[in-house]
Specification:
homotetramer, 349 residues, alpha/beta, Alpha-Beta Plaits, TIM Barrel, 9-stranded parallel beta sheet, 4-stranded antiparallel beta sheet, 11 helices, 32% helix, 18% strand, elongated, transferase (chains A, B, C, D), 3-deoxy-7-phosphoheptulonate synthase (chains A, B, C, D), EC 2.5.1.54 (chains A, B, C, D), DAHP_snth_FXD (chains A, B, C, D), Class-I_DAHP_synthase (chains A, B, C, D)
Chain lengths: 349, 349, 349, 349
Amino acid sequence: MVIVMTPEATAEDVARIVEKVESVGGEAFVSKGVVRTIIGLVGDIDSFHHLNLRGMAGVGDVHRISDPYKLVSRQHHAGRSTVWVRGVPIGPDTFTFIAGPCAVESRAQTLEAAEMAKAAGATLMRGGAFKPRTSPYAFQGLGVEGLEILSSVREATGLPVVTEVVDARDVAVVAEHADMLQVGTRNMANFGLLQAVGESGRPVLLKRGMTATIEEWLMAAEYIAQRGNLDVVLCERGIRTFEPATRNTLDISAVPVVQATSHLPIIVDPSHAAGRKDLIVPLSRAAIAVGADGVIVDVHPDPESALCDGPQALLGADLRALAQAVRQLPPMVGRVDASTLSRTPVVPR
Amino acid sequence: MVIVMTPEATAEDVARIVEKVESVGGEAFVSKGVVRTIIGLVGDIDSFHHLNLRGMAGVGDVHRISDPYKLVSRQHHAGRSTVWVRGVPIGPDTFTFIAGPCAVESRAQTLEAAEMAKAAGATLMRGGAFKPRTSPYAFQGLGVEGLEILSSVREATGLPVVTEVVDARDVAVVAEHADMLQVGTRNMANFGLLQAVGESGRPVLLKRGMTATIEEWLMAAEYIAQRGNLDVVLCERGIRTFEPATRNTLDISAVPVVQATSHLPIIVDPSHAAGRKDLIVPLSRAAIAVGADGVIVDVHPDPESALCDGPQALLGADLRALAQAVRQLPPMVGRVDASTLSRTPVVPR
Amino acid sequence: MVIVMTPEATAEDVARIVEKVESVGGEAFVSKGVVRTIIGLVGDIDSFHHLNLRGMAGVGDVHRISDPYKLVSRQHHAGRSTVWVRGVPIGPDTFTFIAGPCAVESRAQTLEAAEMAKAAGATLMRGGAFKPRTSPYAFQGLGVEGLEILSSVREATGLPVVTEVVDARDVAVVAEHADMLQVGTRNMANFGLLQAVGESGRPVLLKRGMTATIEEWLMAAEYIAQRGNLDVVLCERGIRTFEPATRNTLDISAVPVVQATSHLPIIVDPSHAAGRKDLIVPLSRAAIAVGADGVIVDVHPDPESALCDGPQALLGADLRALAQAVRQLPPMVGRVDASTLSRTPVVPR
Amino acid sequence: MVIVMTPEATAEDVARIVEKVESVGGEAFVSKGVVRTIIGLVGDIDSFHHLNLRGMAGVGDVHRISDPYKLVSRQHHAGRSTVWVRGVPIGPDTFTFIAGPCAVESRAQTLEAAEMAKAAGATLMRGGAFKPRTSPYAFQGLGVEGLEILSSVREATGLPVVTEVVDARDVAVVAEHADMLQVGTRNMANFGLLQAVGESGRPVLLKRGMTATIEEWLMAAEYIAQRGNLDVVLCERGIRTFEPATRNTLDISAVPVVQATSHLPIIVDPSHAAGRKDLIVPLSRAAIAVGADGVIVDVHPDPESALCDGPQALLGADLRALAQAVRQLPPMVGRVDASTLSRTPVVPR
């Protein structure tokens, strides 16, 4: 930590800070500049946090130097992790393709979408039973009935299930049916939910808050990790900017930035970032090339009748183009397409 | 609703849309342009929502024309509402000053802050017992013990209590002690929590999500209203932008924008918007002048030792300047300072 | 300046930096932390800039401590400045109301708008002869003919003229007719233009770039000041955010932030920030209350026929409400309405 | 165009609009809704623009339907264009790699950087002689001397030169030495400069304004095209967001979005977007995969001593990795690496 004093700070102000830092066992190095004094702190950063140094007289600014997260940082965990979802890996050596309908509407629709996904090379199936919707008048999902459909489709197709949980009170029932729990963009800072999924015993897919910084996102992952669950996969899904041509702006740079500071896997959701079907294939290609550990996309057998996000769901030629990209591009960046791995078959639970 | 067809749309595409709209009892007016065709829809907008028109062939864009919220809109409720919090009004005729510490740390600190607030003209007291913090390693609040302190300080000072609830599972216990439930910026889109406070029987202070549009914020209020609770006060607290000089950018224009479209009261939180003590007084003056129904600010008897947001807490000369502004400016914009109203004394519950 | 080394930096990396800093006469204080080393630099900051320290091996980050601008900073010029525009002050003791049409369309329209402005209490007239427009197909202004109209209207009304210059090649001709040169939001970083107005001998109204940080804006003012022209007035006109309800988001906090770090006057343009007529009066009130040194607003005798920004131009009841605010509110924040000052009459040049 | 009337609009308001539209030869289709009336306009959009419909009584909103740009649109020019820079193509069939130092510092440094670039597969050389800098105290470039160095290095290496012009008054001299004129992010809305390069007879590289929407960017290209110059290449270089981990946020989606609406080529600048050397290679790979027509990157023989943007300049292993990506990836997305094309040798002018 570095404390920058204001130009008006007195020698007494500096002395009080040094004393306070030393009172918790830290060391303070004072550098007097022409205009300002700088104090470098050495010692246990957590103990410094409780000193409220920012509130002390004469303090202009406090710069944090090391990362505020620990369990998810690469600082003490240099290699990159692989998270296994019922036998399917998401990590640095593979490229994992996850697909399915935005919302579970019926068994027939879900099964058909899952079969489309599987045929295109997907090894995990997505589908929402609980939908967080901006409007209370929009379709909110089938709830437990949707979870049962997902279970049944998993048995039929062999694809493990990723599904969203929106309320801490639902974690138990969702964990009963799902293989991976998704925390959505609107809930990235719902700390009660983060703690609940941290105790669920299931891997977690943590979407980036649509206006969260990467650091805040990693802090959210730290909440989950702190409850003993390190099986967290991050998902970049676009951030809010002034550009109206896409629903959000896919922050593709977040992939290498996260990989440089955290050991957790990171995948990309081009469907929700763009909100436009015509961008899914190029953005998926970009995700593979930038080094993402996977992509998650919306597919639907009949987008015109979809109850949720129809305009971004893939089918037909687009889905074939995506399937081809998922087969051909990962080897160019040193990865194995996860669908080509042999895997222990899924058995009903 | 207006549907704009793509330049490539066929006459058949248009006919299918007209047919679909008419199938739910709506009317469709077709205007053929040189390049594009436009279809204006007339009828029940909710029935149109379920048609997933965006997903149909030939559709380029769908423009919504009327507001997506109803209960909180001025469209069917022209006057502006007053919300009463244990006898204290927040609404168009008054200006309400709410103050207190960011976090409840002890009974002594809370009582002292509440007395500072009251002396400065505050008629409601704020203070956090449950704190949503970005870091799992930061102080998370005293919980139920904090609520009991707030109750006890209310009895001592007569100031009704506004406090945050961060988890739907805590709504009952918070409602037992608090006079107004605050939903914080990170939870604006936590729909389970919104529904729970909507059923709590207490007035709600709904902060704007730090990156929510005004429309999304009003939709969040609609979630609460839909559960039968129209006692919702909105609170503008700054939005996330690229400007680093302030923690967030106070969107002062949101006050008149909200007042033009919703009947709900709206107040301003300059402390969390700016994150800097030196801006609280000028921003509070601006809030009064722009027509806000109140302000909510952090005060602390000893900001240097505060466990939360010390750098933005007011005391001494700044608090006196704010007290003066709250007395002098509201009459200039046709309002009564709420602290000058006679009021039924608060009796212990 | 503070240099934060990466965790991987070697003792040799640190030694090379110390040596480099000392080679230009600076001092370097090294603080070794558990994970990282921090180096505080003391000495002439300009000489450090040329060292390209960020590019050196082992350097993680470089924090600048003091302001990067000098001539416009309060650091060596503690009081706040007043800029005089042909006898009209803009500064800390007064509140200056500037009004006029967005674009000069004809002598009749400009004269009528100027008379409306004057009747409402304006002491300076605005009006554009050269218009920077996003579309090459939009009205680009009358050019020199517009300047001549402005001169003639100044003679008729006695109001000094503020007008925009968009090209360094036009500075001489605009300076011949105008009393204050405006640099618009799109040209805030047009450094050739900034230098040209810095040599023009006329006071300058420098609008904030619609996505400039406050620091970048002050650096733009520094460009003008560096050419010997300290008569610069800053104008906050809204920044680009994700909120669509207003054209831009008025950053009202920028007023006290600028006043804390720069001695230059600062005014507010609510018309271009909001782009909506109904917000001009409340935002002008907020500007006065927050401590702005003036406001600049669009007025037009016939907004329906305006060739530019008609929807935001005031007339009638709104203009009267604004006139009243400009008379009544400034004394509440310790200012004199500039229109009540006696002033040497304007003589034709 | 579609006009949405306010709920309060009268039949008379509607009639006045219809009349006005018909007065310029347009047709107006009126759809009366339960709450609002919608008017669809058919006819020449330019004539409608001059009507200032937004300013008319009863008008709530005006939605533009077709693109506001023409010459750069695909609407009347369905194929995608190739721009030739002294024999080097930038367009849909190839992938063009442009590299060089941020600033020209000396002949030796420029030559060495150009040779590095060429060895890595670059077919065009970049380098700045006129540098737009935020601070007036920063290095502003060598000016004409820098242009002469670039000419001389072109003769030595055979690489055509792309260089920035920052002032309309310099266009002639820059065009004399350069093969392609770059308009930088700060000047995207400097309309005088756009018109000047539009008349220069040289191809133009138009960077996106760091906070410009894609539509504004295409309108800037339209300014150039309108002066008779259709040899415009767009360059995405990151937009300003709240995320601090990168200097700007590379809007990778802009590539397919632009390609869907404009026939102009588009390349990506990962160096200025990220501002971090470690992201250049992954972002370049993403750019190729998403379908960009080229990339432009900073290289420098000695980044530690660079006078401009040293921290983002590539050399050594990173540059080799980039060279490999440029050779291997373009064929995966159906493109030819432009360096493998035979080309007429560059002759000194």
